[in-house]
Amino acid sequence: MPETIPADAFAAAADGRPRLARAAPLVVTVLAAAALWVAPLVLDTFAVNVLTRSMIYAVLAVTVDLLWGFAGILTFGQAAFFGVGAYATAMLLTAQGGAPHWMAAAILLAVAAPVLLGLAVGWLSFYHRSTALYASVISLVVPIVVTQGIYSGGERTGSSSGLVGFDVLPLEIEGFFRLAAFLLVAVTLAAWILVRSDAGRMLVALRDNEARCAYLGLNPRRLQIGLTAALAGVAGLAGFVFANASGVVAPENAGFLFGTELVIWVALGGRGTLIGPVLGTIAIDYLAANLSGDLPFLWQLLLGTAFVAIIILLPGGLAELARRAWGALPRGQRPAFAPRLRAEPSHAAERTEAPLLTVRGLAKSYGSLTVLENIDVTIRAGELVSLVGPNGAGKTTLMRCLSDGTEPFRGAIAVGGVSTTGLTPNRIVALGVGRKFQVASVFESLSVADCLRLARASRAGLSPLARAETLALPQAVLDILRMTGLDAVLAEPARLLSHGQKQALELAMVVALEPRLILLDEPTAGLTKAERTTIGTVLKGLTADLGIAVVLVEHDLDFVREISSRIVVLHQGRLVLDGTVDEVVGSELVRTIYAGGGHD
C-alpha cells in the first residue's frame, strides 16, 4: 500500500485555504444570477438592449482571456468564430424557419462550424517550434478571410448588408437579457472552475514554458489546438444567442476590428483574471453605447485616452486595483494551497545486457560548421556516464539531438531499440527519457507543488474540475524534496526560489517522470559545495538503487570523478575517449585538451 507522509513531516503540506474562499465562486455565482434575473424589472428598455449585447460580448472576452491571459496565446480570431456562429444561425433560420427542430439544428451548427474552423486554425497556428507571434498573425488573417467570405456570399450571406428578418427564439426582450446573462454566468463559472483546477495549471504552464511541457511528456500542440477549437465553439454559441437577440447579423460581427476591440477590453479589464475582462467589457460597451449618442465624435477619443492611461498606470488592467488590495492583506489571511505528499512505490528500471541508449555515426552541422562528427556511444541501465570536454566541444548539441528527434542530424539514435529520428520531445519522453537543462527550466508562475503535479500529468492525468488534496510522487522525488528543503515551500511560486532550489526542482520534475534515462546538462552550475554534494548523492542513488541510466554534462572534474561509472570525452565535435574514471582522469590526452581549452 502507498505510504501517506505524515503532515508534520512536511511543514507546508497542509491546505491553508479558508473554507469561505473555497465557497466564494459559488456564492458570487448565485448572487450574480439573482441580480441579473431581476435586473430587467428595474432597467429601461435601452439599458436592457445594450446590456444584452454587452453580456454576449463578455462571453467572448472570457474566451480571449483564457487564450491570452492564461495560455499566452494573443488572438484576434474570436470575432471570426463568433461571426461564423451568428451567420450559421441566421442563414439556417432564414432558409428553414424557426421551428423547434430547426432551432436545435441552428444551435448545433453554430457550435460545430466554429469548432471545425478552430481545428483548422489551430492546426495552422501550432506546430513543433512555432512561435506565439506566428499564431497571432494567423489569428489576424482569419477574421479578414471570414469577412471576405461573407462579402462574396451574395444573397446567402447578405453580402455587405448582412442578414435580417429571420425567425428567432420566441422570447421577449427581458427573456433575451436573461438568456445572455445565463450564458455569461455559466461560461464564466466554467472558466473559473477550469483555471482553478489542476488541469487549469496546464494553461499557465503553456504560457510560461511550452518547451518544458513537451519535455514532461505533454503534447503542447494538441493542447493548444484543442483549446482553440473548444473556445471557438463557445464563441459560436455566443454568436447563436447574438443572432437571436439582435435579429440581425453583419460582416462587422466577424471582422478584424471587433476582434481587436475584444483584446483591448480584456487588457483594460485585466487579463488573466476572468472577472476583470467580464466587467471591463460590459462597462466599456455600455459606456460606448451611451457616449456615442451624446458625444458622437469625442467618445472614441475619450476611450482611447482611458486605454492609454490604464496601460501606463495599471499594466494589469482595472483588476490590478483589486489584486493590490488583496496583496495588502496579511499573509495569513490570503489563501495558500499545498497538497499533502504521498509516496508511490518507485519502479526500478529493468537491468538487461541490451543497450538502453545507442548512438551510431551521429553527425550534426550548422551550414558549413560541423558541430558533431561520427559519434558512437552505448549506454546501459544503471550507468552514470559523464560527458566532458572544453567549451565548444558539442556536448549540449549532443544532448539536444538525444532529446529531440526533429533536430536535423545524420546517423542513428535509439532508445530501448526504438529509433528516435523524427520524434518530438514528448514522444521521446514516452520512451523513458527525461531531460534537465543547463538553465533551470521550471514554470515560474506556478507553485512548487503545481510544477511537480504537471510532471506527473502524463502518468496520473489532471482533473479539470478541482485541485487534488494529495500529490503522489515516487519516493526518490520525496527524497530530493526533503534533502533540498523544497518540501517546506510547496506553496511558493517557483520564481521565488533560489538558483539552487530551482535546479533541484527541475531535477525532481524529471525524476517524477520515472524515466529509464536522464539527460543532465550541467546540473551543478552555480551551486554551492553543499548543494553539489546533495545532487551527487541523489544521482548515485538513482543509478545504484533504481537502475536509471544518467548522461551528465559537467565541467567540474572533481564532481565527475566522485560519481561517474564512465566518462566520455568530446573535443571539437569528436569523441576522443570513452573509458573508466581512472582511465580518463589519468589520460595525457585529456590534460592536453583542457590545457588547450576551447570556445563556444
UniProtKB/TrEMBL annotation:
Listed SMART domains: AAA
Localization: Cell membrane
Organism: Methylobacterium variabile
GO cellular component: plasma membrane
Principal location class: membrane
Transmembrane helix keyword on record: yes
Domain ABC transporter as annotated: residue spans: 357-597
Membrane topology: Multi-pass membrane protein
GO molecular function, one term: ATP hydrolysis activity
TM region(s), chain numbering: 23-43, 55-82, 102-124, 131-151, 176-195, 225-250, 262-288, 295-314
Keyword Heme: no
UniProt record similarity statement: Belongs to the ABC transporter superfamily.
CDD domains, per the entry: ABC_Mj1267_LivG_branched, TM_PBP1_LivM_like
Keywords, alphabetical: ATP-binding, Cell membrane, Membrane, Nucleotide-binding, Transmembrane, Transmembrane helix, Transport
Protein name (database record): Branched-chain amino acid ABC transporter substrate-binding protein
Pfam family name, one: ABC_tran
